[in-house]
């Protein structure tokens, strides 16, 4: 497992994500600056949460056009794994690597609390280690309201590309969607923060199976 | 030359901020407000003389950055001399 985490100006979960990956993967994680144009040789790229460029224009819009994103796109086209969390999810939709868009929460408030999720598709490289029961992972966002047109939603549902749904929708998201996959199932974007749920001391460990799933998928011995 | 780009959500995208503005207006007694649509305006000062070429360039700017075609639509107005 070779992984990298990208830092954009205004990212604030980049270190948390790198530490969570290092804890779960047992290997150092490369740190990459947004202005770089090449990734190191990696299996997995993490796009962290935060407020890249202060959410100017639209959340994730400017980060999606950063020099490193051309390399992330090539990585995804080669079948590399990409995990975008919160602002990272917004960046992936803005970059067109995932469908739909994330707009202002329906309640207009910043929502910061643990939420319960169902793992909708457990046959993915990001979710294979989860069981059937709901999980609890924190969210912290203002623009987490996932919007997609009816045709796009039908495609996501038909292709098993909804990875996580909210059990108590905190933001007005279409069809309670909390996380979606690309067509190949190698790119995942989600609003909840699994990297904040890997230590019992910090309130829970329901984020760990996501990283364990990836480790198993990439280093072998696991399901898809 | 100046370009005035007006960007708003597509029909069918529910804008929670516009809904909140409508509710607040109703609360102030402006009962005649039927719907609220919120748009943003971006003005660009442009070098060059050719309004048609400028318009095409600004369309490309909208597609590549200024708007998100997944959820937004836009209009471009070119103002000469301004």
SSE blueprint and pairings:
The complex is a heterodimer of chains A (224) and B (82).
Chain A: E1 3-7, H1 14-25, E2 30-33, E3 44-47, H2 67-77, E4 81-85, H3 87-94, E5 101-103, E6 111-119, E7 135-141, E8 145-147, H4 150-158, E9 162-166, E10 177-181, E11 187-190, H5 208-219
Parallel strand pairs in A: 1-2, 1-3, 3-4, 4-11
Antiparallel strand pairs in A: 5-8, 6-7, 6-9, 9-10, 10-11
Helix pairs in contact in A: 1-5
Chain B: E1 2-9, H1 16-27, E2 39-45, H2 51-66, E3 72-79
Antiparallel strand pairs in B: 1-2, 1-3
Description:
- The complex is a heterodimer of chains A (224) and B (82).
- Chain A has 224 residues and is α/β, with parallel strands linked by helices.
- Chain A has one domain (3-219): 3-Layer(aba) Sandwich (Rossmann fold), CATH 3.40.50.880.
- Chain A is 23% helix and 24% strand.
- Chain A has 5 helices and 11 strands; from the N terminus they run E-H-E-E-H-E-H-E-E-E-E-H-E-E-E-H.
- Chain A has a 9-stranded mixed beta sheet, sandwiched between helices. Chain A has a two-stranded antiparallel ribbon with strand order 5-8.
- In chain A, helix 2 (67-77) links the parallel strand 3 (44-47) and strand 4.
- The longest helix of chain A is centred in the first third of the chain and has 12 residues, at 14-25.
- Chain A starts with a strand and ends in a 5-residue tail after the last helix.
- Chain B is of the alpha+beta class.
- Chain B has a single domain (2-79), classed as Mth169, Chain: A (2-Layer Sandwich), CATH 3.30.1280.
- Chain B has helices at residues 16-27, 51-66, and strands at residues 2-9, 39-45, 72-79.
- Chain B has a 3-stranded antiparallel beta sheet with strand order 2-1-3, covered by helices on one side.
- The longest helix of chain B has 16 residues, at 51-66.
- The radius of gyration of chain B is 16 Å and the shape is elongated.
- Chain B starts with a strand and ends with a strand.
- The mean pLDDT of chain B is 95.
- The A-B interface holds A 57-58, 61-62, 65, 93-94, 99-101, 103-108, 145, 147, 149, 172 and B 9, 12-17, 20, 64-66, 68, 70-71.
């Amino acid at each position: 497992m070779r992984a990298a985490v990208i830092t954009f100006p205004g990212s604030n979960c980049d270190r948390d994500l790198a530490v969570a990956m290092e804890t779960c993967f047992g290997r150092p994680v490369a740190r990459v600056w947004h202005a770089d144009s090449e990734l190191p040789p990696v299996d997995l790229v993490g796009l962290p949460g935060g407020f890249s460029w202060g959410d100017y224009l639209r959340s994730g819009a400017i980060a999606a056009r950063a020099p490193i994103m051309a390399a992330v796109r090539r990585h995804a086209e080669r079948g590399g794994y990409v995990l975008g969390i919160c602002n990272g999810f917004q960046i992936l939709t803005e970059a067109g690597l995932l469908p739909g868009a994330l707009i202002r929460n329906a309640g207009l408030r910043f929502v910061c609390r643990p939420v319960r999720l169902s793992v909708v598709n457990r046959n993915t490289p990001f979710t294979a280690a989860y069981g059937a029961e709901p999980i609890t992972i924190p969210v912290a966002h203002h623009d987490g309201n996932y919007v997609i047109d009816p045709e796009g939603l039908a495609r996501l549902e038909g292709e098993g590309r909804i990875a996580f749904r909210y059990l108590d929708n905190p933001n007005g998201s279409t069809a309670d969607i909390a996380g979606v996959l690309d067509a190949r199932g190698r790119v995942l974007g989600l609003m909840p923060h699994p990297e904040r749920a890997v230590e019992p001391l910090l309130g829970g460990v329901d984020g760990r199976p996501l990283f364990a799933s990836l480790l198993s998928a990439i280093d072998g011995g696991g399901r898809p | 030359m100046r370009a005035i780009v007006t960007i708003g959500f597509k029909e069918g995208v529910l804008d929670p901020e516009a809904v909140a503005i409508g509710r607040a207006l109703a609360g102030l007694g402006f009962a005649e407000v039927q719907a609220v649509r919120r748009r943003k305006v971006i003005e660009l000062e442009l070098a060059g003389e050719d309004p048609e070429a400028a318009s095409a360039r600004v369309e490309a700017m909208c597609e590549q950055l200024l708007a998100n075609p997944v959820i937004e639509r836009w209009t471009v107005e070119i103002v000469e001399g301004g």
